[in-house]
Write a structure and sequence with these properties.
The structure holds 2 protein chains of 2 kinds.
Chain A: E1 2-5, H1 11-35, H2 40-52, H3 55-80, H4 88-105, H5 110-139, H6 143-163, H7 197-215, H8 217-227, H9 229-234, H10 239-266, H11 277-287, H12 292-315, H13 322-342, E2 343-346
Antiparallel strand pairs in A: 1-2
Chain B: H1 2-8, H2 11-36, H3 44-60, H4 65-87, H5 94-116, H6 143-147, H7 152-170, H8 172-182, H9 184-189, H10 194-220, H11 232-242, H12 247-267, H13 271-275, H14 278-296
Helix pairs in contact in B: 2-7, 2-10, 2-11, 2-12, 3-4, 3-5, 3-10, 3-11, 4-5, 4-10, 7-8, 8-10, 11-12, 11-14, 12-14
The chains are: A mainly alpha, B mainly alpha.
């Protein structure tokens, strides 16, 4: 078989195939629930109810979506330049670490502390990604493996700090950092509702990345580098410098996820701050086709699946890992569907 | 320093090196086959997880040890076939598909584990592979314990390197496979199918990765637990680069790497372990992998068509 490009795809094709991908994912979910001995429709109902069925559930979904918007934007920005940043997890923890260090060690008043914490987080996350990117541009070392390995190194570094220099002396021996003072925390968006300003910051960042991508020279250069680095270089675009700028933005965005989780939700740093928010950001970004505003929608969807599945698995005998299978399958179905909107499979 | 010497002359250290290297050897060979054919397989981490689970589950459910290895291999090949289908004929991004396969395989293993054992806190154990007694050799003083007290699976790993090396360099199939990764158009000009060669390489390579994962549950730890693969797949990708895409050098890399890993575990028990936090020791494998990538970057002989999809329609 081979693939032939389609000059003008019909709307039926461009809309139908992604819809088919969603249907295939739902069919797989039904099969998985049936294997577990549960009624598929009931399982779906429980997932939806768990995700948006009450005010509490919806707020929980919005809270879970917040770090995913940041990591999704980080991945979308980097992948757009074909910079394979798989290290959002490490950058997130770097951001969380700086947030806690600045927030608890400097003793600054809140209005000064919060912006400094965010800024420190951005710098830390950017630096964590800068290393692999310099290795890529200077020495040609593949960034996929280096960013992946840095996730493990960062996890161990955080574990060391939480058991050593950064350990909360009042923590009853638990490996956790001291808590941020009250005034160094992100306030609630609406008094009485468990949703903090991190969510608003995430939306602002999505808008910012969208403006950057569509209205600035850098956005144009990032796209050019991603589409064809040789051609971009030939056209006079400094490819190495564009990749470094992309990395600084991407690492900074991922780090804001750590900032927002610590300052908005948890108040301190633990080694289980992120249940793979960094890796899930890849799914969020891909489902959004790397579009920054799409990232918001896809982060809400992915968060809903996770929150809903957690709640469903407490009620039904279906393991919560069904969420991870569904999202991975959705990713693979979707990239295939998108390809087939543009190409026709021909025999020969 | 004397502590390091003491470790290096102990037979148990060398036995540990071979044991730690075994899963890496299988998975590195698997990745090497894929990459020589032109496909980067980032599904490796998840395929090792599914292999670890499938092999263990088979034995736990009453199957034989070698049946377990075979089931693990088949499970790996199934995910390999999916990876191959999406990246070879459809030519989708090998990065995206590979990461998707890793997530899918890992989540599938965890889902199946939770279904099979809903309420266990202590992972149940199986009777793993026993060290193979080699008459004469295993009874040698020091050497017997250091080198000849391994399970059959470890020896299979070494045999696998020899087989991969033989096929790659001494058979027409190996030549075609290497050409598919270097110059696919030349392969088509010979009347061979690049697609079929690459599909075959990804499927067989993924089977080997799964056996590497199965070694963890069936020979090393005798139970399955979450996050047990712990980045070994990513380390194997670094080992392929370190070995310059050659089986023999990759084997040396795996042994060297296992040597450092065995050393760091033992150094934690010494006076050094009192001073240096244990996390620093645990970081060593990952730091070494990055170092290996940096060292080899100048001399890397990357297969020319690695990550380049081949579509017969394009000229």
């Amino acid at each position: 078989m081979r693939l032939d490009p389609i000059a003008a795809p019909t709307p039926a094709r461009t809309l139908g195939l992604p819809a088919l991908a969603i249907l295939a994912t739902i069919a797989l979910a039904a099969a998985l629930a049936a294997i577990a001995g549960a009624n598929p429709l009931e399982t779906f109902g429980l997932i939806v109810k768990g995700a948006v069925g009450s005010k509490f559930a919806t707020l929980e979904t919005l809270n879970r979506a917040t770090p995913l918007i940041f990591t999704g934007l980080a991945v979308a920005t980097a992948f757009r330049a074909r910079l394979w940043n798989i290290g959002a997890e490490a950058q997130l923890y770097a951001g969380a670490l700086m947030t806690v260090v600045i927030g608890t060690q400097l003793g600054l008043p809140g209005p000064l502390a919060l912006p400094l914490m965010a800024l420190g987080a951005i710098v830390a996350g950017a630096l964590v990604l800068l290393g692999p990117v310099l290795l890529k541009t200077r020495l040609g070392v593949d960034e996929v493996v280096t960013t992946l390995l840095l996730n493990f190194i960062m996890a161990l570094f955080i574990s060391y700090l939480l058991e050593g220099p950064l350990k909360d002396p009042m923590g009853m021996g638990w490996p956790k950092s001291p808590a941020l003072p009250r005034d160094a925390r992100l306030p609630r968006l609406v008094e009485g509702l468990r949703l903090h300003w991190g969510f608003a910051l995430a939306l602002i960042c999505a808008l910012g990345v969208w403006v950057m991508q569509t209205r600035t020279t850098l956005g144009y250069e990032i796209r050019a580098v991603g589409q064809n680095p040789q051609a971009a270089r030939f056209a006079g675009i400094p490819v190495g410098r564009v990749l470094i700028k992309t990395a600084l933005i991407s690492g900074g965005l991922a780090a804001l996820a750590g900032f927002s989780e610590v300052a908005g939700l948890k108040g301190n740093l633990t080694s289980d701050l992120s249940p793979d928010f960094g890796y899930t950001g890849i799914i969020v970004a891909m489902l959004a086709l790397l579009h920054p505003l799409g990232v918001v929608v896809s982060a809400l969807f992915v968060a809903g699946i996770f929150v809903g599945s957690d709640s469903m698995s407490r009620a039904a005998e279906v393991p919560t890992y069904i969420a991870d299978i569904l999202l991975a399958a959705a990713l693979l179905f979707m990239v295939l569907a998108i390809l087939l909107t543009r190409y026709r499979v021909v025999r020969g | 320093m004397t502590e390091i010497v003491d470790i290096l002359i102990s037979a148990s250290f060398w036995a540990a090196v071979l044991r730690i290297a075994s899963p890496l050897i299988f998975a590195t060979m698997g990745e090497l086959i894929c990459e020589r054919a032109g496909v980067l397989n980032l599904g490796i981490e998840g395929i090792m997880v599914i292999g670890a689970f499938a092999g263990w589950m088979t034995v736990y459910a009453g199957g034989g040890l070698w049946t377990g290895v075979a089931v693990a291999m088949l499970a790996g090949m199934a995910f390999g076939a999916l990876h191959g289908l999406l990246t070879v004929p459809f030519g989708l991004s090998q990065h995206v598909v590979g990461l998707g396969i890793t997530l899918l395989a890992t989540a599938s293993a965890y889902y199946a584990y939770r279904l099979a054992l809903p309420e266990v806190t202590n992972p149940p154990r199986i009777a793993p592979f026993e060290p193979l007694h080699i008459p004469g050799l295993s009874d040698l003083p020091w050497l017997g314990e250091a080198l000849f007290s391994q399970t059959a699976l470890t020896w299979a790993g070494f045999a696998c390197v020899a087989a991969v090396s033989l096929v790659l360099y001494r058979t027409p199939l190996g030549l075609a496979l290497r050409a598919a990764g270097e110059n696919p158009h030349a392969v088509e000009a010979q009347g061979l199918s690049v697609g079929a060669i690459r599909m075959g390489a990804v499927i067989v390579g993924s089977g080997l990765m799964a056996v590497g994962g199965a070694f963890l549950t069936m020979s090393a730890f005798s139970s399955f637990f979450f996050e047990m693969v712990n980045g070994r797949g990513w380390i194997c990708i670094a080992l392929v680069v370190f070995g310059a895409w050659k089986p023999g050098k990759a084997l040396l890399g795996a042994l060297l790497f296992a040597g450092f890993d065995a050393l760091q575990v033992r150094l934690q028990q010494t006076g050094m372990g009192q001073v240096v936090p244990y996390q620093v020791f645990l970081m060593i494998p990952y730091l070494l992998s990055i170092l290996a990538l940096i060292l080899m970057s100048r001399r890397a002989q990357v297969p020319a068509a690695l990550m380049t999809p081949f579509n017969r329609g394009d000229r």
